[in-house]
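Quarterly update, task 2.4: flavin-adenine dinucleotide-bound model.
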Amino acid sequence: MPPIIDTPCPQLVPGDPGYDDARRVWNGEIDRKPAVIAQVTGPADVTACLAHARAHGLDVTVRGGGHNLGGAAVADGAVLIDLSGLRTVHVDPDTRTARVAGGATNADLDAATQAHGLAVPAGTYSDTGIGGLTLGGGFGWLTAKHGLAVDNLISAEVVLADGRVVRASADSHPDLFWALRGGGGNFGVVTEFEFRLHPVGPLVDVGLFFWELERGAEALRFVRDLVPTLGNTGLMIVGMTAPPAPFVPEEHHGKLGYSLILAGFDGTEAHAALARRVRDTLPPLFELVTPLPYTELQKMLDGIGFRGNYAYEKSVYVEDFSDGLIDVLVANLPAKASPMSATPIALLGGAYTDTPDHSTAFGGIRRTGFVVGLTAICPVPELLPADRAWVRSHWEQLLPYASNTGGYVNFMSDYEQDRVKVTYGPLKYERLARIKAAYDPDNVFHHNGNIKPR
Ligand SMILES: Cc1cc2nc3c(=O)[nH]c(=O)nc-3n(C[C@H](O)[C@H](O)[C@H](O)COP(=O)(O)OP(=O)(O)OC[C@H]3O[C@@H](n4cnc5c(N)ncnc54)[C@H](O)[C@@H]3O)c2cc1C
């Protein structure tokens, strides 16, 4: 069949072998049928896709890793610009930089950079796309030591809505470069990210400590006291059901509780001292303290959910664990229906606070705090309505304790316009809207946390 779009890259239309696989995203609930899926091989293909969509009045979506739980990467009847074939990562160990293709995943990035003992902060799940993750901010285990993914971005190659290809950096299109660092996929298709890298590993230290629900409030209060002393250590505390994993004693499988995960980058002795402090203050039900290759740490949470699970998510930012907030978290955890649904709470601290708030478009305040994720993950679709309702009700009860009720733009399943505005705040939103008007006045890129052109 001749190509639909005037460019030689593979193109799939309904009925083609591979079409159904190519339109699937992480969230199994999303079932949309694009008019054509263009498996682009570089910026020229992207330009051709945009011209085709413009000429035929079609919607455009862009797919990186396909992790957005609202399915922003795919729309009925649209031209889907599929970046999943663009996954090359070039590392220059001398300059400690990496050029990362727009469809690469966390796993692609980590494998290439760790081959040189280097890394950049990115997500905590190996399958997530670097594209969507970075454009929304991108936190990971290294955030306390080296900031967000966007704090380490040097430049980006972008195909703009009118088809032009530009490189955005501090010196070239600085307004676009500012907007790309947190403003999401609103401003163009990024075909290449250039990151600054840092020496990491290859071995790092991990500590996982689990307390049953009855001691959940104590665990959260303990974390509150621990945070100011943590330095570079990455921290996440997850309200969850203990999985049937090899390191979980069989008698605790299926128990509801809180898992504290600490990722240490400052040597085994410092990490061991931290682990002792946890044990001495609040002995856990079970624990796993071990050195681990950094690439394995980056896969440690892969078992929390799987591509094709039925999912929904909301979040808020909080600055501290007040007693009221802790009560709401602990009271709501038992109401979830799916054993995989969870409340992952990630610390944003340390080096995260070194970047001035106004210097990137990231929609979170650069003070020490947490992003509280409320995540429904269901192995069967029948459980999703109950856990979607659980997420919404839990979220509403958390609002009084939030420092930003919009939450993390990358943890939105519904892009409600008022929430997107709240996430960025009026000043950043206004600046983003002006930049949007300059680079995408017709709002071609609107399947995202949309910034309306001003
Ligand atoms: C299991 C799981 C774990 C996660 N863990 C983390 C985590 O640890 N840290 C964190 O910060 N976030 C995390 N996230 C959230 C994640 O950052 C977002 O879902 C993000 O949108 C994923 O990007 P993607 O490219 O995979 O998604 P997609 O669904 O492909 O894209 C999301 C949005 O970004 C746009 N986009 C993607 N790539 C490009 C590009 N190259 N150029 C222009 N626009 C693009 C798309 O058009 C879409 O609007 C997680 C999500 C899941 C499901």
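Highlight for this quarter: The mean pLDDT is 97.
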